[in-house]
Batch of 2 targets.
Target 1
Amino acid sequence: MKVLFIGDVVGKPGMELVSKLVFRYKRDNEYDLICINGENSAGGFGITKKGALKLKRYGCDVITTGNHIIDRKEELEGVFMIENVIRPMNYEPSFPGKGWTVVKKDGMECAIVNLQGTVFMPDEPKSTSPFTVISENLEEIQDMTPIIIVDMHAEATAEKIAMRYFLDGKVSALIGTHTHVQTADESITEKGTAYITDVGMTGPFDSIIGMHPQPIISKFLGNTNEQFKLAKKDVRMNAVAFEINDKTGRATSIRRIQIAEDT
Ligand SMILES: [Fe+2]
Ligand SMILES: [Fe+2]
């Protein structure tokens, strides 16, 4: 199974690039499954039902999310009514949506799980240990399919690496999201788990992780009144492409991708 996992899509510039590139991938039948993190798809802050439906229409099969979804609380119910749009599994159980899904593609079943780290992460949405929650649910997921892809949405590199050791050989791929900066440590463990600490972002790179630099610098200088503004220039897609043996669930390759708007 050939999978593309696209890093956090940021605002309209990111959405437009995804629409263009994913259309091409679908037309050329390049991937069996396309996953994307959509927590910043709505102007950089959260995700709307309309935006999630757009991503599905572009050809994204699964949308994972993270902390930013509470920027648009009024959208939560609508967003998570859409099939294969998931939120971190370790949010409190009353939070709308679910933490994993199973997708059928060309006769193959693939589970996608969303987790969120707890180190240096905002207090809301409330979350418990991703390590405990995945341990409690992994057997049920493994009973359904050996192909398991996990989005670990977290700030701390060490927490993501700890999860890599914790889930080594138990899942096909563990893909880090949230920091918006792609790391150069993609690898496959001896037990067959594809890994990257952070897949990066899809949006304007002439920015501070997607936002116009000036208001953020003002904030660091103590001025908290300025509104953050979505940046526009140097739009790129960050992603990883990996292959999974669909009988064993073991990853066989992983490749980092960074594509600029005009290529
Ligand atoms: Fe993000
Ligand atoms: Fe995030």
Target 2
Amino acid sequence: MVRIAGERIADLFALAEKEAGGSHPELASRYVALARKIGMRYNVRLLPEYRELYCRRCSVFWIEGRTVRTRLRGGRRVRTCLACGRPRRVPLHPNRVPTEEGLPAGPVARHDAAVAEVEIEGPDETDADEEGEEG
Ligand SMILES: [Zn+2]
């Protein structure tokens, strides 16, 4: 039953995505609500990629610029639902503890900027054996 519930949730989110760009975007939110209901009924978690797609208060399917506003602020990505106004804040750098102002503490750790240490070897000039032939 859990497996079927998971499939049904995936189907509903696929439908929601389709309707969101179609002629009935309000249906998308209806599909989201149904998918969440199924998840709760059968104790199935929605996949993390689905959970990014809708408002947790009013279940509206988020369409960038139409039903959700996304801003980067204070080291967090703030997505505000334009239907009910509920903000959802996702830290951009989950490993760092934010300060009181909500700004990340300390300098930004740039893992990607780590320069690989390359050992530069000098030209290996092996002295050719000088076969000195005197005379
Ligand atoms: Zn909402």
